[in-house]
Amino acid sequence: MTSTNPLAVSFDGVSKSFGPKQVLRDVSFQAARGQALCVLGRSGTGKSVTLKLIMALLKPDAGKIWIEEDDITALTTHEIPRVRRKIGYLFQDAALFDSLTLYENLALPLVRLTSKSQTEIDFTVDRVLGQVGLGGDKKKMPSELSGGMRKRAGLARALVLEPKILLADEPSSGLDRITAGEIDELLIQEKIERKTTLIVVTHDVHGARRVGDKFAVFDKGQLVSCGTATDVEHSENDTARKLISEH
After folding, report:
1. Looking at the structure, do residues 178 and 245 belong to the same domain, yes or no?
2. CB of 32 within 8 A of CB of 6?
3. Using 50, 70 and 90 to split pLDDT, how confident is the model at 1?
4. 74 contact partners, CB below 8 Å, separation of at least 6
């Protein structure tokens, strides 16, 4: 690792099976601090499992996973929360608590996981909601939000603890092109303004090409191509070339 461009996430020979089914096979890739890595692949190729491994919700059968300077495969159960604090997770369905207002959804992790005062919590929630365009909606319940607003709210909750790394699972799924583009813009803004590392699992090639600096293409549990859009376009792997193409 170099001091000018340190690595945020690194997989080194990672494999993962569930019973007889091998989901990942000897996967290695890296994402530097402030870089957006978009993970592409057909359904069932190990993309979401990759995010769960980064969060240490799953353990690999082989290989090492580095989050900055920590090899999380070697950490104890008590050490993992310290590393998880560096990571935000935008779930595909936003994963908001339906019984809590938008303000309460965002305040909850700040109350539980930080020593911020009430004034600081209010300021942080207002700042993050304003950042995603929901500044006037903090008293609303999740049921009152449109699909696009729910996705923005999920992003706000993922960002409220100011993570160094943001994982996004299908951030544009179920959204129209205009709304999906707005979510893409928010991700780009987060990357540029806060130097947040993005790991984005997506089927949306158009959005991926806007957000991503680097692309990892999975097929049948293997990483078949990894690099810039141009690198993947000129890959020897036919699946990789097709997946990066917008046509």
Report:
1. yes
2. yes
3. very low
4. 64
